[in-house]
C-alpha cells in the first residue's frame, strides 16, 4: 500500500503538511485527529469563517503557498497592423501572375501604324516595319496562349510586332508548303531572348489570317513534368499514355481559336465510343463541344484530329506548333506501373507532335509543324542540341563542318535524333541595325522610349543588346531605371 | 545671306598628293623622354629631357620629314622615335600622313572616285549652308561629345538622384544590382526598374485635392509616361518637413523634451520612403512570384499620389506634434559642469 501522503511533499512543504506529519507519526486517521483536538470551543464556532480584514482572518488565513507561474502561450493576433486586407482566394495569385495585358492606355497611339493583312508577312518590302495585330486575331491568339508574360505587350497601346527578314523567310516557306499540299517541318532555335516565341506567334498570326486551323501547345513542359494526370491507353504496344485533363484544355483552346472554321466544317466520318453520338455532316464544333469532362476527352480529340485532317473534303491547311521543344525531347517525369521512367515520346499527345515533326505522318491538306526551343527553362539535351547544330550546318552546306557526337559523352537519345533527322532549322540571331532602328522608332513614337532615335542611340542600344538581341535591347532601353 | 562659297576649301578634299599641312598646330612637346640605355643603337643621343621650345634645331627638321610626304627608307635614322611620343594628332589627319602604298592602277582609280564623291559631298554641304570642315563633324563618326559631359553620361551619376536613393533603401544584403533589377535572377524580390515600369502602365492617378501634391507638379495625365517624376512627386509630397527630437531629461524631472528639428531634402525623402516600405511590408500581395514586392511598392506610391495612403496620416501627426512642440525651440541646454 502506498502512503496517502507523499514523503516529498512532507519534506519540502512542512507548513502545508505539519498536521499530516503528526498524523503519520501517530498513525492516526484524519477524522480521528479532528475529533480528538484539545479545544473548549464548539466545533461549529471554531470552523466559522472570521470576518475578512480582521486579525482573526489574518491569523486563520491558510498558509501562503505561492503558486508557480504558469507558462502560457498567447495567441498572436493575425495582421496586427490594422491594415485588414482580404488575402487572395486559392488560384487568384497564380491568375494574377499569369495574366496578360495587351494594352497600355498611357502609351501614345502610333500614327501610321497599319494592321497586318493576309499577305503582309510575305512581302519583303515590309521587312523593318512594325505592323499591328488585327483585333479578331488578337482574341484567337489569346485563346492559343500565344502571348507570354515575359513579352512587353503591356507597355504599348496596341499589340504590334516587327517584321524581320527571318519572319518573311518563315512565312514564305509556310505559304509554299501549303500551296503544294506539303508539310513544312521546322524548328526555331537561337539564343536567349532572340524572339523565338514571337516568331511562333507570327506564324500563328499568319495561319489565322489565312484561315488555317491552328493547334498550339503553348508550353511543352506541362506535358512532361508530371503535373497533369495520365493514364495508359489500352491495346498499345509499347504502352502509350494519354493526358485527358490537358487534352480537354487543348480542345477548348482549339474550339475558341478556330471557332469560325469549326462552325463551317462538317464531320465526314462516324465515330464510335464518343460521349455523345455525332451524326455525319454535323459541324465540327458540335464534335468539339462533346468533350465536357476529362473522361472521354482523348477519344474526342482523336475524332476531332481525324476530322480536321480528313483528306479531300476541302479542309484548310493546318499549323501545329509547340513552344519549349527541349521538354518533349527527353525522358519524362512520368512512371510506368512498374515504376520505370516513361519516354516523352510514349505520351500520346507528344507522339502525335513528334510524328508530324519527324515526317512519319504528314498533314494531308498541307500546313506546317513548327517547334520553338526555349533557352530560359530548358533541361540539358545533348541529342537535340547536336541534331539542331547538324541540321543547321547541313543547311549552310558545310560537308566537313557538320558537328559529330562526342564519343565519350553519355546521354544521347536515338529517338530524339530520329525525330530531328530531317527538319528545317531557322536560327534566330540579333536584329540588323535597320530593324533595330524601326523597332526603336516605334518605341519612341509610343512615348515609352524618351530619347532621340538617331544613328548614335540606335548603335548604342544595339551594342548594349549584344549585337541586336531583341530581348536584351528591350531590357536596355525599356526596362531600365533611365528614361 | 547665302554662305560664302569657299571653293578652295572644297578642293582640299581632292588633294591626292599628300603635303605638309598648312594649318598644322605648332609643335608642342612637353618633354621628350629619351631612353638612353634602352636605345642601344643610338649611343650619341644622350640629351636629357628638354622642353620643346629648347629643342635643338635638328629635331624640328626630323619631325617635319616625319610628317612630310616622302616615303622613308628603312634605314632612316632612329632619332624620331623619341619624337613620336608627342601628343597624338586628330584622327582625321592620320590618313594623309601615312606614306602612299605602291601605286596600283585600280586602287588609285577607286580612291580617286571616292575623293571626288567626298568633295561633292562637301560642296553639297556648302550649298546647304553648313561648314564642311566643322571640327565637331569632320573625322568623327558620331561627332564630338558635348563638354562638360552631362551628368547622365558619367558612370556614377547615370541614374536620377531620387531613384538612386530609393534603390539603395530597397537594397538588401548589399546587392545593388538586384535592387535595380538589371541582372537576371529569379530569386530576387526587390527592383526599382519594375516599380517604374508599373507606374508607366498604371492609369493616370486621380488626385485628391485634400492631399495636395508638391506645388508645381505636372498634371496627372503627364505622370505615367514620366515615372521618375511620378515617384519623385509622390515621395516629396508626403515627406515630413521636420522630425521631433526627444531631448532626454530636458523637461525636468527626468522627462524628455520634444524639440522639432528641420530635415534636409535627402533625410525627408528617406523618412517618407521608409514609411511607404513599412506599409508595403505589411500588405499581402495579390499575386505570387518575383514581381510582387515592386508591384506593392508601386501600388502604394499610386495610393500616395491619390491621397489614399496611410502615410499621409503619419505625416500629419508628425507635423502636429512638431507644431505643439515648437514652444520648446527656445530651450537651451544648461552648460555642462565638469
TrEMBL record, chain A:
Keywords: Mitochondrion, Ribonucleoprotein, Ribosomal protein, Transit peptide
Superkingdom of the organism of origin: Eukaryota
Main location group: mitochondrion
Cellular location(s): Mitochondrion
The keyword Ribonucleoprotein is assigned to this record: yes
GO biological process: mitochondrial translation
UniProt similarity note: Belongs to the mitochondrion-specific ribosomal protein mS29 family.
PANTHER family: MITOCHONDRIAL 28S RIBOSOMAL PROTEIN S29 (PTHR12810), SMALL RIBOSOMAL SUBUNIT PROTEIN MS29 (PTHR12810:SF0)
Protein name: Small ribosomal subunit protein mS29
Lineage: Eukaryota, Fungi, Dikarya, Ascomycota, Pezizomycotina
From TrEMBL, chain B:
Domain Small ribosomal subunit protein uS7: start-end pairs: 156-326
Tagged with keyword Ribonucleoprotein: yes
Region (Disordered): 63-112
This protein's record includes keyword Ribosomal protein: yes
GO CC term (a single one): ribosome
Domain of life, per lineage: Eukaryota
Keyword terms, alphabetized: Ribonucleoprotein, Ribosomal protein
Low complexity bias: start-end ranges: 75-87
Biological processes, Gene Ontology terms: translation
Stated family: Belongs to the universal ribosomal protein uS7 family.
Record-linked PANTHER family: RIBOSOMAL PROTEIN S7
Name of the protein: Ribosomal protein S7 domain-containing protein
Species the sequence originates in: Lasiosphaeria ovina
Amino acid at each position: 500500500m502506498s502512503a496517502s501522503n507523499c514523503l516529498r511533499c512532507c519534506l519540502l512543504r512542512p507548513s502545508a503538511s505539519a498536521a499530516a506529519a503528526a498524523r503519520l507519526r501517530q498513525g492516526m486517521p484524519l477524522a480521528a485527529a479532528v475529533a480528538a483536538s484539545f479545544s473548549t470551543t464548539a466545533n461549529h464556532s471554531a470552523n466559522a469563517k472570521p470576518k475578512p480584514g480582521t486579525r482573526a482572518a489574518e491569523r486563520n488565513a491558510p498558509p501562503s503557498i505561492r503558486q508557480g507561474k504558469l507558462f502560457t502561450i498567447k495567441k498572436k493576433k493575425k495582421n496586427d497592423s490594422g491594415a485588414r486586407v482580404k488575402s487572395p482566394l486559392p488560384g487568384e495569385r497564380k491568375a494574377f501572375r499569369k495574366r496578360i495585358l495587351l494594352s497600355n492606355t498611357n502609351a501614345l497611339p502610333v500614327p501610321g501604324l497599319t494592321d497586318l493583312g493576309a499577305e503582309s508577312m510575305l512581302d519583303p518590302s515590309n521587312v523593318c516595319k512594325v505592323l499591328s495585330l488585327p483585333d479578331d486575331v488578337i482574341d484567337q491568339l489569346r485563346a492559343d496562349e500565344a502571348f507570354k508574360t515575359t513579352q512587353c505587350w503591356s507597355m504599348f497601346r496596341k499589340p504590334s510586332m516587327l517584321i524581320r527578314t527571318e519572319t518573311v523567310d518563315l512565312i514564305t516557306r509556310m505559304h509554299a508548303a501549303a500551296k503544294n499540299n506539303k508539310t513544312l517541318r521546322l524548328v526555331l532555335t537561337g539564343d536567349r531572348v532572340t524572339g523565338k516565341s514571337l516568331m511562333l506567334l507570327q506564324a500563328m498570326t499568319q495561319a489565322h489570317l489565312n484561315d488555317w486551323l491552328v493547334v498550339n501547345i503553348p508550353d511543352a513542359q506541362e506535358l512532361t513534368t508530371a503535373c497533369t494526370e495520365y493514364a495508359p491507353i489500352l491495346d498499345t504496344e509499347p504502352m502509350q499514355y494519354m493526358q485527358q485533363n490537358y487534352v480537354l484544355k487543348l480542345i477548348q483552346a482549339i474550339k475558341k481559336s478556330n471557332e469560325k472554321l469549326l462552325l463551317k466544317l462538317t464531320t465526314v466520318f462516324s465515330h464510335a465510343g464518343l460521349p455523345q453520338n455525332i451524326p455525319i455532316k454535323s459541324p465540327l464544333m458540335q464534335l468539339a463541344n462533346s468533350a465536357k469532362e476529362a473522361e472521354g476527352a482523348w477519344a474526342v480529340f482523336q475524332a476531332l484530329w481525324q476530322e480536321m485532317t480528313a483528306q479531300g473534303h476541302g479542309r484548310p491547311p493546318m499549323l501545329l506548333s509547340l513552344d519549349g521543344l527541349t521538354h518533349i525531347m527527353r525522358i519524362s517525369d512520368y512512371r510506368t506501373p512498374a515504376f520505370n521512367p516513361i519516354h516523352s515520346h510514349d505520351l500520346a499527345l507528344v507522339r502525335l507532335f513528334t510524328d508530324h515533326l519527324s515526317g512519319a505522318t504528314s498533314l494531308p491538306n498541307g500546313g506546317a509543324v513548327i517547334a520553338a526551343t526555349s533557352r530560359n527553362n530548358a533541361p540539358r539535351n545533348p541529342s537535340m542540341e547536336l541534331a539542331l547544330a547538324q541540321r543547321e550546318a547541313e543547311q549552310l552546306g558545310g560537308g566537313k563542318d557538320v558537328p559529330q557526337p562526342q564519343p565519350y559523352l553519355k546521354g544521347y537519345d536515338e529517338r530524339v535524333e530520329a525525330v530531328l533527322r530531317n527538319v528545317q532549322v531557322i536560327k534566330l540571331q540579333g536584329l540588323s541595325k535597320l530593324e533595330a532602328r524601326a523597332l526603336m522608332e516605334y518605341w519612341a513614337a509610343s512615348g515609352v522610349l524618351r530619347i532621340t532615335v538617331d544613328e548614335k542611340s540606335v548603335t548604342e542600344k544595339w551594342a548594349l543588346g549584344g549585337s541586336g538581341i531583341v530581348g536584351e535591347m528591350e531590357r536596355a532601353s525599356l526596362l531600365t531605371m533611365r528614361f | 545671306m547665302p554662305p560664302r562659297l569657299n571653293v578652295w576649301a572644297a578642293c582640299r578634299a581632292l588633294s591626292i598628293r599628300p603635303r605638309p599641312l598648312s594649318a598644322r598646330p605648332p609643335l608642342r612637346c612637353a618633354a621628350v623622354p629619351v631612353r638612353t640605355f634602352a636605345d642601344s643603337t643610338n649611343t650619341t643621343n644622350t640629351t636629357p629631357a628638354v622642353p620643346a621650345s629648347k629643342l635643338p634645331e635638328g629635331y624640328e627638321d626630323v619631325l617635319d620629314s616625319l610628317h612630310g610626304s616622302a616615303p622613308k627608307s628603312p634605314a632612316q635614322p632612329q632619332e624620331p622615335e623619341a619624337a613620336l611620343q608627342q601628343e597624338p594628332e586628330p584622327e582625321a589627319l592620320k590618313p594623309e600622313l601615312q606614306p602612299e602604298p605602291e601605286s596600283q592602277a585600280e586602287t588609285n582609280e577607286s580612291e580617286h572616285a571616292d575623293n571626288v564623291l567626298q568633295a561633292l559631298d562637301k560642296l553639297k554641304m556648302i550649298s546647304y549652308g553648313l561648314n564642311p570642315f566643322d571640327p565637331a563633324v569632320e573625322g568623327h563618326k558620331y561627332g564630338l561629345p558635348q563638354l562638360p559631359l552631362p551628368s547622365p553620361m558619367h558612370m556614377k551619376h547615370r541614374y536620377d538622384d531620387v531613384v538612386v536613393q530609393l534603390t539603395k533603401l530597397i537594397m538588401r544584403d548589399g546587392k545593388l544590382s538586384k535592387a535595380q533589377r538589371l541582372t537576371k535572377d529569379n530569386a530576387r524580390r526587390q527592383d526599382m526598374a519594375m516599380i517604374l515600369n508599373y507606374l508607366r502602365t498604371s492609369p493616370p492617378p486621380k488626385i485628391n485635392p485634400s492631399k495636395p501634391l508638391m506645388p508645381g507638379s505636372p498634371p496627372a495625365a503627364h505622370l505615367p509616361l514620366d515615372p521618375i517624376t511620378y515617384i519623385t512627386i509622390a515621395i516629396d509630397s508626403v515627406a515630413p518637413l521636420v522630425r521631433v527630437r526627444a531631448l532626454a531629461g530636458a523637461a525636468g524631472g527626468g522627462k524628455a523634451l520634444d524639440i522639432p528639428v528641420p530635415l534636409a531634402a535627402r533625410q525627408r525623402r528617406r523618412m517618407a520612403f521608409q514609411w511607404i516600405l513599412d506599409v508595403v511590408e505589411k500588405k499581402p500581395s495579390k499575386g505570387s512570384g518575383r514581381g510582387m514586392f515592386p508591384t506593392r511598392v508601386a501600388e502604394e506610391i499610386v495610393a500616395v499620389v491619390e491621397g489614399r495612403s496611410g502615410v499621409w496620416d503619419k505625416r500629419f501627426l508628425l507635423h502636429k506634434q512638431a507644431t505643439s512642440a515648437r514652444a520648446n525651440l527656445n530651450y537651451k541646454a544648461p552648460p555642462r559642469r565638469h
